[in-house]
Amino acid sequence: MSKSIVLLSGGLDSATTLAIAKQESDEVYALTFDYGQRHRKEVERAKAIADQLGVKEHKILEIGLDELGGSALTDASEPIPDYRDFETMKEEIPSTYVPARNLVLLSCALAWSEALGAGAIYIGANARDYSGYPDCRPSFYKAFQRAAELGTRSGVENHAAEIRHPLINMRKADIIKKGTDLGVPFELTWSCYRGGETPCGKCDSCRIRMKGFVEAGLDDPLSYDE
After folding, report:
1. Which residues share a beta bridge with 58?
2. Which residues face 162 on adjacent strands?
3. Which residues make Cβ contacts (< 8 Å) with residue 151, sequence separation at least 6?
4. CA-CA distance, 142 to 48, in Å (whole number)?
5. pTM of the entire structure?
6. Closest to 182 in 3D by CA, of 167, 164, 162
7. At CB < 8 A and 24+ separation, what contacts does 69-74 make?
8. Where are the alpha helices (H) located in 54-189, listed in sequence order?
């Protein structure tokens, strides 16, 4: 029986990745992190998505990345950049980058995969329509896979979990189309870097999402402040 772990943030990419994992695995486990992010609303959305799509188990881990600082996403005193140009997003690392976030999150998922005997870890990373984070690039996942093979018991025994990133080279519009085909409840997802009642429509994540729905020719089920 194949088991997999999905890093489920509550956003549309991770929700689509969960739906893909459900197709490819017998048992799917979801892992969500409360790391002190300003948009903790996404944790509640992750719970709803896990319930809607169905997982074997959903864990929520609290880790204090906000205590380490270094990001506008975890420090309310730092402004979140608005209306950045889409090309600039691909070239500049913004203040919303959380130091080593995916390295930390994947390490936790890797530990759980050893405990469960899971053969795959899924993450909804994307390196096409994204905010320029270095831990969303293929080279990072290749390096992490090697680290998993060298630094874990399962790796030494030649069965380290495979790090899967099925959306890595997809445009946001294509991710949305894929999720729609798989029945992803996009109305439950949360993308905004701010945790208000409604998405701001100004931050990188909102603007990439909005553009994706337009290019996909589909209506975004969320309403925005704009």
Report:
1. 30
2. 120
3. none
4. 31
5. 0.96
6. 167
7. 70/98, 70/99, 71/95, 71/96, 71/97, 71/98, 71/99, 72/96, 72/193, 73/37, 73/38, 73/39, 73/97, 73/98, 73/193, 74/35, 74/36, 74/37, 74/38, 74/98
8. 86-91, 101-116, 138-151, 153-156, 172-181
**Residue 7 near residue 122, CB atoms below 8 Å:** yes
Q: Which residue has the tokens 């603007």?
A: 207
Query: Quick check: 184 and 140 in contact, CB under 8 A?
Result: no
The model's confidence at residue 126, banded by pLDDT at 50, 70 and 90, is: very high
Classified by CATH at the fold level, domain 3-216 comes out as Rossmann fold (3.40.50)
pLDDT digits (tens, 9 = 90+) for 158-179: 999 999 999 999 999 999 999 9
Residue type, 67: E
The tens digit of pLDDT for each residue in 15-40 reads 999 999 999 999 999 999 999 999 89
| Residue 37 burial by Cβ neighbours in a 10 Å radius (0-12, 13-18, 19+) | buried
Distance separating alpha carbons of residues 181 and 183, to the nearest angstrom: 6
- Evaluate whether 191 touches 220 at the Cβ level (below 8 Å): no
Q: What's the alpha-carbon Rg for the chain, to the nearest Å?
A: 17
The pairs formed by 134-142 with CB atoms below 8 angstroms and a separation of 24 or more are 134/93, 134/97, 135/100, 135/101, 135/102, 135/103, 136/102, 136/168, 138/165, 138/168, 138/169, 140/102, 140/103, 141/165, 141/168
Closest alpha carbon to 50 in 79, 84, 7, 96: 7
Number of Cβ within a 10 Å radius of residue 2: 12
